[in-house]
Amino acid sequence: MEANFKHVSFEEMSGIDEDYDKECKYQVSQLIELEGFSAAQALYYHNLETNPDVKEPKVLVIVGPGINGGDALVAARHLKFFGYDITIFYPKRPKKEMLENLTLQCENISIPFIESLPEEFGSDSYDFILDGIFGFTFKGEIRSPFKEIIDQIGASGIKIVSVDVPSSWQCDEGNVNSTYTPDILISLTAPKKCSEGFSGVHYIAGRFTPKFIVDKYGLSVPPYEGCNQFGKIN
Amino acid sequence: METSYSYLGAKEMKDIDDELMADLRYSVYQLMELAGLSVAQSLYHYDKELGGSDGKKVLVIVGPGNNGGDALVAARHLKFFGHSPVVYRVYYPKRPKKDLYEELVTQCENLEIEFIDELPEDITTEAYDYILDGIFGFSFSGSIRAPFDDVITKMGASDVPIASIDVPSGWNVDEGNVNGTFTPSMVISLTAPKKCMEGFTGAHYIGGRFVPKPIIDKYSITLPEYSGLDQFARL
Q1: CATH number of the domain that A137 lies in?
Q2: Do strands B203-207 and B232-234 pair parallel, antiparallel, or not at all (unpaired)?
Q3: Is 0.90 surpassed by the pTM of this model?
Q4: What ipTM describes this predicted complex?
Q5: Are B224 and B3 within 8 A, CB to CB?
Q6: Cβ of A227 and B45 within 8 Å?
Q7: What is the pLDDT of residues B150-159, one digit of tens each?
Q8: Which residues contact B14 (CB under 8 A, 6 or more apart)?
Q9: Which residues span the domain enclosing A39?
């Protein structure tokens, strides 16, 4: 399925974001809620399919400094409502009201925020790591503390679920920093060029993309079932 | 064993809303999106349980307040789910220009959801499979003024099953159907059922899986369990 799927470039995704704002009048708070919720649904479904015996999976959610982090905070909250055992690591918190509010909403439902990653952690610590560090706009070098965090996650042996783009990959060029390849990718709206050839499990969260955007950018529509906000393409 | 669920009054609902927005800083965009999604999922599920297929024609009646906003969100999701919503907006002669409302309308228009300017004299089952009632919510009180009286009368006279969002429009939240209007086939209560829903014998869904546990505990709300990915539960 994925072979013929349209993968969008940085320029196209930026155009789509602009259309979401100017044409669709989606508010950022609204879109992030839908994206994060969709990601949570996809992971829930994935776990049900692959580890049905694990009823309360333990997920370490790594929240980056930008919007990708916002998506992860929303996903963390919904996963908690789905009964998951969530821990959040949010090392760099910008003074942005929306992100502060999302943080508060997670704290309010007793999701623990850890101050640092443990020296050693492996798959007996967590069932999944939800990677919400960097999104499709990431460019350049990976600065501290994220360089160390990304290395540690990659070495952990824990299944990594990346939101939108594997953190530190560049939207078009891919894994230029030679970091980890996630086990599961949840692309938002559409897969990015960098995920062409990605052989892991791949979900698309985008049941909020109107037809005119699909047509304008030649997007492929994933198979959505029932009320699901995600579709599986690999 | 019959579980006794909680039924909340108007004041408690207002307090909960205030806490969600003022204390927990949920934006109205977040709450309305999740509420509307719950409504859409509930109606989708209800229809599937009756053996329904896609493409149901849903007349979505949108009031001027938050209940209307919830209905606009639900209409959008229903369209994505493969159904065919048609929107009719009813508002006071002097229509307030609320950004949120206008944005939600735009989002529906982008999906080529039809907006009609007038209700037909008779809302027939040939034309529609469901009416989604989003006129008034839990803050309605008093008598039903124009132009809402006419709309509500037409809804009541129709054979098309009505699904009401949160509170059947025109009902008093605490006292119930004091204005003698319709009783819907289905209600999707948001957060928790309202006092007026005690004794309701139709299909009763709850939406509001997003209400945090501290609030559930504070107001001693007893709810049915949500399962799996569902944003709704059935009483």
Answers
A1: 3.40.50.10260
A2: antiparallel
A3: yes
A4: 0.94
A5: yes
A6: yes
A7: 999 999 999 9
A8: B138, B139
A9: 2-232
